[in-house]
Amino acid sequence: MRILITNDDGINARGLEVLTEIATELAGPKGEVWTVAPAFEQSGVAHCISYTHPMMIAKLGPRRFAAEGSPADCVLAGLFDVLQGARPDLVLSGVNRGNNSGENAMYSGTLGGAMEAALQGLPAIALSQFMGPDTNDLDDPFEAARVHGAALVRKLLDKGLWDDSDYRLFYSVNFPPVGAAAVKGMRVAAQGFRRDTSFGVEPHISPSGRKFLWIKGGAQHAPTLPGTDVAVNLNGYISVTPMRADLTAHDALAALEAALT
């Protein structure tokens, strides 16, 4: 199996080391794992592509490249430059440091990489590690993903739903904020929404007197509706959420048509 991996935390991120282990186990001794990851952290860039300026790419080692771009850029670079059209069997993105459950999914560069792969007609899975008080005390905060990641991806490949529609399915996997031994299992879960919390800004004044704004996230452990991804994660389960890049509100089409005609 040929696997292309990327992330949004950057080429030197600890989570990418975990993903390399997962991909290497999946690929097997005769397989190939190719890494094309951002040269610098690209958290929060979603499905951004560097459409208006070029990006430099550098080979760091065998099958290992860093690109000055977003995760979606890295997937494009991997497919059309690094691999020279030799399409991978699977694209994995992550393992993100922090959850991409709930509304975080909309901002996630980790998901952006998987989304681009799906738009290119490839099987793709994004993997993220929820962090919290229990993981803070671990020597390896990625322990749940490291221990359970390969088996979870293999199960998705063997038994998951895969299609070749225009906006094909891809998957978001979030490992719970607990140690590996405390993981209770896996749940298929819809994307949730954390109510009464959101992203915002925090102003700071620089030594020169200029105002700068930091983007600030909301409370990550705010619960979502029962059975949705955040709720499942906080209850100790790995969440698996099927996704598509199609943003159409299909549930509203008929009502809107009736209202406007």
UniProtKB/TrEMBL annotation:
UniProt keywords (A-Z) are: Cytoplasm, Hydrolase, Metal-binding, Nucleotide-binding
Which Enzyme Commission number(s) are listed?
3.1.3.5
**MF terms per GO, please?**
3'-nucleotidase activity; 5'-nucleotidase activity; exopolyphosphatase activity; metal ion binding; nucleotide binding
Where in or outside the cell it occurs: the entry states: Cytoplasm
Can you tell me which residues bind a divalent metal cation? 8-9, 43, 96
Q: Where is the Survival protein SurE-like phosphatase/nucleotidase domain?
A: 3-195
Cofactor: how and how many bound: Binds 1 divalent metal cation per subunit.
Q: Write down the chemical reaction(s) this protein catalyses.
A: a ribonucleoside 5'-phosphate + H2O = a ribonucleoside + phosphate
Return the GO cellular component terms, semicolon-separated. Answer: cytoplasm
KW Hydrolase (keyword) present: yes
According to the UniProt record, what class of enzyme is this?
hydrolase
Cross-referenced Pfam families: SurE (PF01975)
Keyword Transcription recorded: no
**What InterPro entries does this protein map onto?**
SurE, SurE-like_Pase/nucleotidase, SurE-like_sf
Cofactor(s) for this UniProt protein? a divalent metal cation
- Name the predominant localization: cytoplasm
Q: Which family does it belong to?
A: Belongs to the SurE nucleotidase family.
Query: Its biological function?
Result: Nucleotidase that shows phosphatase activity on nucleoside 5'-monophosphates.
What is the name of the protein in this document?
5'-nucleotidase SurE
State the species of origin.
Frigidibacter mobilis
